[in-house]
Amino acid sequence: MWYGYAGQYAIVDLTTGQVSKIPLTEDMARKFVGGRGFIVNWLYERVTPRMDAFAPEMPLIFAVGPLTGTIAPSSGRWTVGCKAPQTGLITIGIGGGDFGAHLKWAGFDAVIIVGRSLRPVYLMISDGNIEIVSAEHLWGKDTTEVEAAIRAEQENWNIHVAAIGLAGENLAPTTTIIADRARSAGRGGAGAVMGSKNLKAVAVYGRNAVPLYDAKSALDEAARMTRKLMTEAHFSTYLEWGTTYFLDRYTQAGGLMSFNAQRGIFPDWREMDGRVYKEKHWRGRLACYGCPLPCSSYFQVEKGLRGGTFGEATSASTLKELGARVGVKDLRHILDCHVEIDRLGLDLISAPATIAFAVEAFQKGILTKAATGGLPLEFGRGDVVLELLRRMARREGIGEDLAHGSRACAERWGKGSDLLRTDSKGLEPPATDPRAYPAWALGYATSSRGGCHMRAYSVFEFGGVEEDQAERMGVPMSVNERLEWRGKGRGVAFFEDLRSLGDSLITCRFVARNALAFPEEQVGILNAVTGLGFTAKDLYLVGERITNLERLFNLREGLRPEDDTLPKRFLQEPLPDGPSAGCVVPLEPMLEEYYTARSWDRGTGEPSADKLRELGLTEEYNGEGETKP
Ligand code: SF4
Questions:
Q1: What are the beta bridge partners of residue 8?
Q2: Using a 6 Å cutoff on CB, does residue 511 contact ligand 1?
Q3: I want to staple 580 with a disulfide (CB 3.0 to 4.6 A). Which of 361, 369, 423, 436 is the partner?
Q4: Full set of structural domains in the chain with CATH
Q5: What are the pLDDT digits (tens) for 104-149?
Q6: pTM of the model
């Protein structure tokens, strides 16, 4: 009998229409725990080297963790993964809302989708069954419309839907998958992979509670973790502002990436920060399933570019990416573009980042009006951003180039546009300027999916780790100093593994942000829920195993150690003004420290044989969670 887990996963072949249910093995649960761990394992097993991301055989995998849908704090989250068309590397995204909890309650730990349907379809998952339903009438609808339509035709308003918009239908690589209208996951083009399968949506509705091994202990542990969370410095700030308060932080450090990273200061930031948002547009708090920290909110724009509109899930990313990065200070326009991105199913980071890149290219004469279809590209024009987003989703005119991200644009446009890029490994990082945050910078460079802050999420530069935590990490307390680089190689490697584990349990970054991210804090509730008797040491190894297996996947796809880098702008162009003026990223010494901490070879980028043995990932590893005898 399984506790915590549903105990089975499904393989859905959209070419044949066949649905197979497969029991989960205990070995798999122990080695990879769930979510991101399950996904990397199955991708490693099923994706042959250099398989086209849009090949019908490419698996698109949704998975949840043992804590999903239980009493554990922030347990509504879900993961989705595949090979990313934008980067050619692995991508595994983590989304919020209620979708994850319902997938578990519907009876599945994961769904592996392969093949390609001849006609548009969606999956209806409930009561241990998966039905493939025609979605021809949904093709062309946006992600919010799809949810409403599926709920109406299934006559069930408690269904939760993960869908693609126009961008995913048109196979634009800068897409994600949007659940619960505004919860995005799968940067690098998971939405396009879903579109390539003619799969418009995955709808879930679950009613079966997850059996707990020791319900009283699970309740006690959940209460203890919640009390601990409430003592953490970020708790009250997140409660009040969500992550919108980060605009202040970034500005104080001179690290608010503005005007395509030409500056680290956005002069008009006070016109669009969290305070203005709260006063003018905030309409109520919003939480994902089972979360004691409702950091999200609803908003309204009364008169904007889309007329009047409602939206949800504003975050620091909304303000940074659609504000400072593209130079827009009108908060109404920023929020309008946020709604448009969610409805089109575009990536909230890569889409505006590519637009910012194009605007600078236009400024510098690399792009002309002839190339933009007469559209003048200027920083600060919310209407232009909105128009470009629509063209990206339709892959129309200049939108065809932009839809592929900035690395692909630079390859097409030439003329020195390469120097304006902000991406790592083809994926644009968020608009937190790495020149002001060395650990953040290293995380962008080493992330398994390209420029991403979520792989490491090294919060020690934003509030610090305690002495006992620094000791466990094996780093000096100076890692808390923002511009110090020493200790950050080891610190980033350590936090990457913590996040690999957290994404497998699954817990939210904002709840398990500092102290609660450590396995010593999570092992109690995991054992109370599953009864599997993990130790904290087991969990450290699980995190490290997942990070290393993602590395092996990427190496097999052709990744080289020299790809663990940042674009020239961050390495050679100092920030021109603000508190971090003169800073570039001291990448080399941090990388040296990082590779040593990981036991990865500096010449080949490969994990050492000893490390692979320690993690059970030797050459005999067969990708099924088991080592061949
Ligand atoms: S902290 Fe915010 S994003 Fe995380 S689970 Fe809670 S409501 Fe969702």
A1: 23
A2: yes
A3: 436
A4: 8-205 (3.60.9.10), 256-420 (1.10.569.10), 434-615 (1.10.599.10)
A5: 999 999 999 999 999 999 999 999 999 999 999 999 999 999 999 9
A6: 0.97
